Amino acid sequence: xxxxxxxQNDIExxxxxxxxxxxxxxxxxxxxxxxxxxxxxARLTPAMADQKELVLVNWGGDAVRGMKASFVDPxxxxxxxxxxxxxxxxxxxxxIRLMVQSGKVTWDVMDRNLHTALEIGPxxxxxxxxxxxxxxxxxxxxxxxEWGIGNYIYAMVLTYNTKKWGSEVPxxxxxVWDFKKFPGKRAFRREPDAVLEAALMADGVPFDxxxxxxxxRALDMHKKMKEHAIYYTVIxxxxxxxxxxxxxxxxxxxxxxxxxxxxTKGLYDWTWNEGVSWGACWMVPKGAQGGKAIWDFIAMTQxxxxxxxxxxxxxxxxxxxxxFKFLDADWNKVNPGAPENYSKMLQGGIEWYAKNAxxxxxxxxxxxxx
Amino acid sequence: MPSQNxxxxxxxxxxxxxxxxxxxxxAMLVFLYLVPLADVLVTSITDPKPGLDNYLLLFTSTSVxxxxxxxxxxxxxTTFIALLLGYVVAYAMRAANSSQQRLMLFCVLLPFxxxxxxxxxxxxxxxxxxxxxxxxxxxxxxxDEPLPLVRNETGVLIGMVHxxxxxxxxxxxxxxxxxxxxxxxxARSLGASRFQAFRMVFLPLxxxxxxxxxxxxxxxxxxxxxxPALLGGGKVLMIAEYVAVQINDTLRWGLGTMLATxxxxxxxxxxxALSRIIDVKRLFGA
Lengths: 370, 286
Known about the structure:
- The complex is a heterodimer of chains A (370) and B (286).
- Chain A has three domains: 2-35, no CATH class; 47-152 and 280-337, Periplasmic binding protein-like II (D-Maltodextrin-Binding Protein, domain 2, 3-Layer(aba) Sandwich); 154-278 and 348-368, Periplasmic binding protein-like II (D-Maltodextrin-Binding Protein, domain 2, 3-Layer(aba) Sandwich), CATH 3.40.190.10.
- Chain A is 41% helix and 17% strand.
- Chain A is built from 15 helices and ten strands.
- In chain A, helix 3 links the parallel strand 1 and strand 2.
- In chain A, helix 9 (235-243) runs parallel beside helix 10.
- The longest helix of chain A has 19 residues, at 350-368.
- Chain A is globular.
- Chain B has 286 residues and is an all-alpha fold.
- Chain B folds into two domains: 1-46, no CATH class; 51-283, MetI-like fold (Orthogonal Bundle).
- Chain B is 76% helix and 0% strand.
- Chain B has helices at residues 4-8, 15-46, 53-60, 62-95, 98-109, 116-127, 132-139, 153-177, 182-189, 194-205, 207-222, 226-231, 239-248, 253-277, 280-283.
- In chain B, helix 2 (15-46) crosses helix 14 (253-277), helix 6 crosses helix 8 (153-177) and helix 13 (239-248) packs antiparallel against helix 14 (253-277).
- The chains are: A alpha/beta (370), B mainly alpha (286).
């Protein structure tokens, strides 16, 4: 019996993980038959079957544990009769499109970012945020849009080796492009957001003139950079390149720079100066089944104390500006949402990326490729 | 499945029964391979709108052309280096006694058991500026500054040659084993020097092996994804990664599937051309 049970679990996991993307149910039954598995055993009911269960989709790993402790547990305490499932498989744009277009929407709340909300919201992929329940005033104005409400802040920050150049450390992107003063390998992500902005800042463009991005100017700067740099595609690979000493300075996500500093006992550090801050946000797929429970949940995650807890567990910066009051000075040093840090950074241009992300990504890849 | 009656009646397999046995595997192949493959072909001429617009990009898009050229250049260089190194190894294997041969064969096959991903990370660790290779060279005073051996095209080539070398060695070795060594001895007895005997007798006889191994390595090199993505430092974009970017990031599925189709057709064409020259079935061990 346990064998049948295992197989059933395998199948359900497969269907759950693929969300019916790869094969329709009919084809899948055919495959089961070919494999000698009775389709009757395969109880193909994804998580959505239970209407009361809210499905929260994020990017997995520590985020599942962190969001459960900071957001889900307090919510369940307030509404004991409700249920929440966390799916860590990642709400990528292609998966959202496929789910909404297929008409079988099993997700309720998705952890993504504001520029994606502005990109796919107008395409009819997202529900509009119900601002009668969700409180717009609990975030900075730039973190609330029609189809998404900020849930935490992340930043791409200048990260550097503290010992490589004696008492000198790079403090701006101009320094990163100064190959004589700060010799050594650089690292950037092979994605346009924040990478193009860093190039423009290095070229002397002030914050308020960054957008709309002058692609040619930014790419010319990276053509000068590329022989001195690696361009990582997987963020963990970039973090690792710093840790094993391959790279001495460059751009890294603040949630990676922090553990890097701890792992290396301060050999690496980062500065908020000229960092680029982005709003992650909650988005709701069009046709989500969760109803009012969705907005109840989102409204509860706006609590500054809950957000302060998420910073402590995952390094995610509280999007509610009040949250810094619940953190001591040490914690506020790693908090991108703390007023003194936030004001040093450029706000990522979500409107520009909503329109230009795809083209910019392709142009960056073309410029970097030999 | 045969019923009880068949068994009692001294059941013998009939021709059709064999088909029943392979039916599940065949059905799996059709569902999991041919159907999605057809889907790829169809997408390449229907997305974003029906027509051959995607294929036109082969001639109009500098981005696509640059990627194709990079792919061809790296595949050609990998093939050349792998053949050169593989030839030496295969030649030595042919000349060795049988216990040495077994040991050499074992060493050639060893890397097959390690995943390409692990090997790529191992190369990064070995070749990076603080890795043992650069540290050793600097300790001996051969170089002052670490050599840029990885996260660039050099790194990609090293990683790809490493993966491809067993294919080159085994194919060449299979070919060399079939050569009658007495021909070389005969040439020597007729006054040819060692080098002349090699160049005028042995080398021409290994031509089919060189062509076969070259084609095999070239074809396999065209589709590399993990190795260039990791060892290239984000700056060496080959066609497979370009396809992945189109499918996952820019969501231009038509362009991605067009390139996948083009790659597949090129490979099939190369195989067809190869079959004109040598017996492909024997090359792949059938």
